[in-house]
Amino acid sequence: MSNVAVVGFAQAPNVRNTQGTTNGVEMLVPTLAEAFEQTGLSKSDIGFWCSGSSDYLAGRAFSFISAVDAIGAFPPINESHVEMDAAWALYEAWVKILTGEVDTALVYGFGKSSAGTLRRVLSLQLDPYVAGPLWPDSISIAGLQARLGLESGRWTEEAMAEVAARSLADATTNDRAQRSGDAEVAELLANPVVADPLRAHDIAPVTDGASVVVLAAEERAREIVDRPAVITGFEHRIDSPSLGSRDLTDSPSTRAAAAAAGIDGVELAELHAPFTHQELILREALGLDSGVRVNPSGGALAANPMFAAGLTRIGEAAKQIIDGTAGKVLAHATSGPALQQNLVTVLEGIR
């Protein structure tokens, strides 16, 4: 069974609002073109296509079918879709290559988060019997999670602000980031709360965006790039959907996925943490010490395109391998309320 590697990554500019449609075609066409130019591949070279998006976000059924227009569905293609972040579409594509059925795959995710009121749209992922009818929005749920951590002594508001300051500073070198800049912790803490105890810097921005990752079997990958990012670990786990039946200040599913993926020795981690305190939860669950650089791209706090942000974490981590910056990296994606479901990918530069 051949290993699978990331050989290309591209993303659309992350912005607060695009003028395009909710099917993502306007964002995807130039992003796909960038991925093809980067890898030297064409549509006919891709053995399998898989996407991640959400009809709830688009506001219409089977919206991903319209997104196929960005690819061109004729001649017929081998295509699939997941109704969640495209990091899970990449998992499907990884399995597809492992079976030996194809030796290349292209994964894309997109979301026009500005099309509705995102924090209310995300309420639809709650259980429909207990939490759903109360319509708690995603930011309020995260606020409850942050408050639990503060009251239990798991973290402080200063630690949360330090995450924001570092992420925004790192994002200044990312030309696709939606927000970036230098700020002092004291300055951030002087800002008013949005959903107690969360301030604006603690919350990922509402983002329209898309990203593309190209995969190849290892032998094929070495024909495409000099240093492919080989996937050496890939696992995802899920916690209870019931907010009251789990400890919201911890992430057992992240810990379990990391243990199965084998993260020892990682030098860098791209974590999908839409809230500052969630990065603190993830770092503890993963056992990352101060020697591991976290989110050099700025992470989700710099840009959080729904259903593409997790895939972007994998792409950003893979870039560090492909350009020779790191030898072993970790990428993480999350889905569901309060870090309910978590995916961990380990990538290495193997010559």
TrEMBL record:
One of its GO terms (molecular function) is acyltransferase activity, transferring groups other than amino-acyl groups. Keywords: Transferase. InterPro entries: Thiolase (IPR002155), Thiolase-like (IPR016039). This is Acetyl-CoA acetyltransferase. It comes from Haloechinothrix alba. SUPFAM superfamilies: Thiolase-like (SSF53901).
